[in-house]
Amino acid sequence: MSNRLRWRKFVSHFMLTMTGLCAFVTVAVLFFILGYLVYHGGTSVNWAFFTKLPTPVGEVGGGMANAIVGSAKLLLLACLLGVPIGFFGAIYLAEFSGGTVAFVVRYAADLLNGVPSIVIGIFAYSLVVLPFKHFSTLAGGFALGLMMIPITLRSTEEFLRAVPRALREGAMALGASKWKTIASVVVPAAYRGILTAVLLAFARVAGETAPLLFTAFGNRFWSPGWEQPTASLPVMIFTYAIAPYDDWHRQAWAAGLVLLGLILVINIVARVILSRGVAVPRT
Amino acid sequence: MATTTTTVPSAGPVAGSRSFINRLRDGDEIARLVTFLFAGSVVLITLLLVYELWHGSYLPRHKFGFAFFVTSVWDPIFDHFGALPFIYGTLVTAIVSLLIAVPLGIGAAIFLAELAPARVSDTLQFFIDLLAAVPSVIYGLLGVFIVIPLMRQYIQPALKSSLGFLPFFQGPAYGVGFLTAGLVLAIMVIPYIISVSREVLLSVPRDQRESALALGSTRWESTWKVVLPFARTGIMGSIFLALARALGETMAVTMVIGNTPTISASLFSPGYSIAAVIANEFTEATGDLYLQSLIELGLVLFLLTFLLNGLARLLIVVTSQRGSGMGQA
Amino acid sequence: MKRIAYLLLVVFSLAAIAVAEGTLSINGAGATFPYPMYSKWFDEYHKKDANLQINYQSIGSGGGIKQVTDGTVDFGASDGPMNDEQLKAFQDKHGFPILHFPTVLGADVPTYNIPGIDAELNFTPEALAGVFLGKITKWNDPAIAGPNKGVNLPGNDIVVVHRSDGSGTTYIWTDYLSKVSDEWKTKVGKGTSVNWPVGLGGKGNEGVAGLVKQTPNAFGYVELIYAIQNKMPYGRVKNSSGAFIKADLAGVTAAASGASKDMPDDFRVSITNAPGKAAYPISSFTWLLVPSKFSDSAKRDAIKGFVKWMLADGQSQAEALSYAKLPKEVVAKELKQLGAIQ
Asked: How far is CA B191 from CA B104, B186, B315, C212, C229, in A?
């Protein structure tokens, strides 16, 4: 074997090992993040965290019960806004529309998807907070819902398109009208994918902080109804992490663990649902 | 029985003599109308958003004009606002993050696409997708408690003593700053580079690789000299996507960048980014000019990410089309 | 699956509405300077009346002024009194004036984190101005070392920390520096948000305290209670009579004693660099910003009730958190102003 060949082979092995290292490093970072959160958050999560309200500044103890409920309410609103628009809009794109309209709608959705979350916050502030003169759960839910729309729309459209034409044509041949076909054949066939899309969109906005800073604002107490400011997990993490109080740091870790745990569980469930179902394009 | 057809319906109204009201009785027409309204609302919302950003920033646009982009003063007392420090900070942190993430990301993508057996590749991709799902504020949390002390105590002093002659690594080691923000951003954008690059690499036709190997190249050479160049455009697309993500990142950056509108060659210096200043100062911007200057910054950010995302998608589409058989021989 | 989802939706809505019935929720926002005091007060007041929630968010004095002017919160709070322009903006927007109500007295302290140094340092006005102007860069600079003979200050670079958000604490600090340093006055000026020559930015008193605590060689300014609660060392400042005073209740009360007799009707007064041998020079009142008219009578009565309680029972809780009580004359004057709220 010539020297040159030996060198080339060495380079090949070396570089390929390096790429393996890159992949390893990336995955290791994920496990490190998880591990650290589990360690720090795990030791801080206690019953008080889930059931108590925040205590006055400087006092130890207290929890994030209102933030957990607040996040739940915000996400509920977000789904109420994002899912119908995404779902029905996708039905329009996949079943009814022609080239130009579809192009425009998809373009708008991609645009909306690319908007930085802080800018969505500005938009929600001008639209919902200012005219009604207060920060509210509604405003926060609106901002999060906006972010859910494009994800739900594009993914659902892909899954609807992936349903084989034969199914549609079969239904029509049996006399079903178009909307009946969609409702009873196409959508159920794409059900898994749609559910995955919704879950992934949900997980994405569950962790969003920036849009909530000037919409849901914050609340040290329970937020009554839907028109008052509310605490939320991501904002609490932010507020507590940059503060000097050790007790707040402890709670921030606990909140981080709860939030990340929730998001990862949803992601894993969504992907498992997808892999068990119809083989469809990557979302 | 209404107008059942076996072809995909066109966008236009059903040709013929039935009036609109008559057609409305038809369930299909209602379904079409209702779903059209939902789809249309997406367009409406997007238009409204752009309008609000444009309209909400008219004061500084008229008062400062283009000078807004080159002024480095941000003075709420004397009502002088310039975007330069924030544009600088946003770009610098994004570039630093890419410098770290691109080699790592492409390397990992090569491993996943070329070397790893399919099951390992899929499993690892699964985990990397999970990394992409971690919210920004959690990266910020880790940044504050792990990365900043690490930077301040070990990494920055080490860089200073070894590469301190470069203007990038001078100045006191605060722990916060451009470099830290760039590092945290790098971790956040790597998954995007990996997943898109991996897809793109996988779509390169097998015969490209095989002809290279048949001609006697090593595996690395076939990857580096044949497959990568073929997938080059798509990988560029993934980089643009990552860049767009890095530019718009708010929480993680604002927790580790130092929140000081400074322009400095040193990466150890604290700085500010567009998203971070909006997050910090929006709720307290007294005075219309101040608030609208922040909105104008939001508009700038929006335009930047819009351009990048558009370019990214274009490049990715071009590569996939090439890969499906129309590529270079 | 669907049925469970619907059920949850219904339950949630009912729960949300149920909590809404009967709970009066009032929102305020503003200064981080008095936040430990306010969070305690609002918590205590909620215990007295479980149907009343006063939700206060500490986003900085600048935020308080802006949000109350926009009308997105019911009251604001600031340690930098609203200037004439801001008062006019409120009046123009709402058609009636906004009132300042002093609540407690506090102090800005210079806090630092020098590795190996636990001692209380003495700072002259020139030293403070010099550091924050960026002209004094090392801890062992003569201007700092001079009044601290006996302390072995290292030659490390000072890491200046200031506020990144609009802050009354900043207003107090820059107001003081403007009074003692002409260079500061012309170059930077006073305000809730200034163009800082040097330093890192922290969000809120909490953020500055956090940064100083975690960054070696850091030097920042925070409200007294933040330094105490976080066990951070803070220095003495030389007052106009030449004495080095450490911030405490006595020093702050001494600074306010002169002002209480000449308190203007709108309560906007600065007591930094106050005369008096025992006065702490960086003291200040902090104010609640309350609109003089409310369209919702329940809210108006609730807020008036709170202010009255604050001026009586609330005051007795101040000293435990190292805030000084209001002088009696000021309290009396405020009770009169309370009557002006419709």
From this structure: 10, 9, 18, 34, 41
Q: In the predicted model, is pLDDT for residue B329 greater than 60? A: no
- Sort out which chain A residues have CB atoms less than 8 A from B45's CB and list them: 108, 112, 146, 149
Q: Which chain C residue lies closest to B175 (C-alpha atoms)?
A: C215
Alpha carbon of A237: minimum distance to chain C alpha carbons (Å):
13
- Does ipTM exceed 0.90? no
C23/A contact by beta carbon, under 8 A:
yes
- Size of chain B, expressed as the number of residues it contains: 329
Yes or no, beta carbons of A243 and C27 under 8 Å apart? no
- Contact list, C226 vs chain A (CB under 8 Å): 244
Question: Is pLDDT larger for residue C312 or for residue B5?
Answer: C312
| B117 in contact with A, Cβ within 8 Å | no
φ, ψ of residue B268 to 5 degrees: the values are -85, -10
Q: Cβ contact (<8 Å) for B141 and A253?
A: yes
Q: What is the pLDDT of residues B54-105, one digit of tens each?
A: 998 888 888 888 888 888 888 777 778 888 999 999 999 999 999 999 999 9
List the 213-252 stretch of A: residues with Cβ below 8 A of B.
213-214, 234, 237-238, 241-242, 249, 252
| Alpha carbon separation from C322 to C42, C57, C229 (Å, rounded) | 17, 21, 10
Query: How much is the average pLDDT of C139-167?
Result: 89
Q: Which of A38, A172, B316, B270 is nearest to C161 (CA)?
A: B270
**In this structure, are residues B256 and B152 in contact, taking their beta carbons and an 8 Å threshold?**
no
> Which pLDDT does position C202 carry in this prediction?
86
Backbone angles phi, psi at C103, to 5 degrees: -115, -55
Give every CB contact of residue B175 below 8 A, 6+ residues apart in sequence: B148, B149, B151, B152, B153, B156, C214, C215
> What is the arithmetic mean of pLDDT over B48-57?
92
Residue B259, phi-psi category: left (phi > 0), alpha (psi -120 to 50), beta (remainder): left
What confidence tier does B29 reach under pLDDT thresholds 50, 70, 90? Answer: confident
> Which pLDDT value is given to residue A231?
92
DSSP label at C234? B
Answer for the pair A269, B126: CB distance below 8 angstroms, yes or no.
no
Helix (H) or strand (E) holding B36, with range, is helix B27-55
Question: CB-hemisphere CA count at 13 Å for A90?
Answer: 27
List C-alpha distances in Å: C58 to A218, B235, C204. 10, 45, 8
Residue type, A168: R
List pLDDT tens digits, range C264-298.
888 898 888 888 889 999 999 999 999 999 988 99
How far is Cα A105 from Cα C97, in angstroms, rounded to an integer?
A: 48
Expressed in percent and rounded to 5, the helix, strand and coil fractions of chain A are 75, 0, 25
**Any CB–CB contact under 8 A between B157 and chain A?**
no
Compute the radius of gyration of chain B from its Cα atoms.
Answer: 25
| pTM, 2 dp | 0.86
Name the residue among A58, A135, A239 with its Cβ closest to that of C229. A58
> In the sheet that C244-245 helps form, which strands lie side by side, from edge to edge?
C122-123, C236-238, C244-245
